[in-house]
Design a protein that fits this description.
This protein is an alpha+beta fold. 44% of the residues lie in helices and 11% in strands. The chain has one domain.
């Protein structure tokens, strides 16, 4: 896992989106930042989303919960779509977003 860079922390520290968990209706306030996307086997360092500790490290074994993983990936694609299409063109990000939206509709 990569640490979140100081540049990214400074850019997003005043953004209200990064003060709450990206999973809807989550009341938790202990927030961590998650690198939710991988491309060519590496984490995309510029793309982070906020997750509470419950969803980020929730199952007691220190690994992300399924619902946290799905929501964080969906939010990452939604927030950074233009950057992804420009810098990571070999992956179909639009199709992946549709797939995640359909999964989340059926699980909720």
């Amino acid at each position: 896992m990569r640490a979140v860079s100081k540049k990214i922390k400074e850019e997003n520290s005043n953004n209200p989106f990064f003060k709450t968990c990206c999973v809807p209706d989550c009341p938790e306030t202990d927030i961590t930042w998650q690198h939710s996307l991988k491309y060519k086997g590496r984490q995309l360092a510029d793309i982070v989303v906020p997750l509470c500790r419950k969803h980020h490290l929730g199952n007691g074994l220190g690994s992300i919960t399924r619902i946290g993983s799905l929501w964080s990936e969906l939010w990452s694609i939604t927030l950074h779509r233009e950057w992804l299409l420009k810098n990571c063109p070999k992956f179909d990000w639009i199709q992946r977003k549709r797939y995640l939206e359909n999964i989340l509709k059926t699980t909720l």
